[in-house]
Amino acid sequence: MANAQQLALLKQGVSGWNEFRKQNPASRIDLEGANLNNADLAGADLIGANLTDANLRGAQLSKADLTGANLTEANLTGANLTAARLQMVVLLNADLRGITLTQADLTRANLTKTDLTQADLRQANLSDATLDRAGCRNATVAGANLRGANLRDADLERADLSGADLVNAVLFKANCRGTNFQGAKSLTEAQLAKVATLLEAQLDSEIREQLAKAKPGLLEQP
Q1: Which CATH superfamily hosts domain 135-222?
Q2: Closest Cα partner for 131 from 108, 107, 157, 111?
Q3: pLDDT tens digits, one per residue of 82-109
Q4: What fold does the segment set 1-105 form as a domain?
Q5: Percentages helix, strand, coil for the chain, rounded to the nearest 5?
């Protein structure tokens, strides 16, 4: 259960809330299960907050700081987190369909089993993030930093990863049907050889030719 006093203060406005956080830096923030549907929380200090199972549908969280926050099973469908700070955030089983995370910092974030269908992650920092079994169908991840990210068993069907930095990213058994990898940085044949399928995927000509020789089955209808 959310702390009723904290929730009421947050709903009164970000200015007063951030002053409270400044004056009480050691206070544990408990907003578990809170209903913050369509709330304007832009720039809010939510560092380390417990937002497990919270309703943040359509919430405005641009430039908010959620470093280390727990959003397990939270609903953030359609929320705006442009340029938000989400380092080491836990989003296990969270619903992020249609969310905007452009230029957000998700370094070392845990997005295991998170639903990112049609999410906008353009130029986001997902370095060392865990997206194991994440659903990313039709997501836009163009120009994002995915260095060292774990995308094992992720569903990347029709996702746009054009221009993304994939140095040391793990794509083991990922569904890459129709995925756009054009212009992806440091993407290797060895990485793509381990995915589940590349049927209809958009690839730069050189790497497509390498795969056609080494793993032709990945490019063909099973």
Answers
A1: E3 ubiquitin-protein ligase SopA (2.160.20.80)
A2: 111
A3: 999 999 999 999 999 999 999 999 999 9
A4: Pectate Lyase C-like (2.160.20)
A5: 15, 15, 70
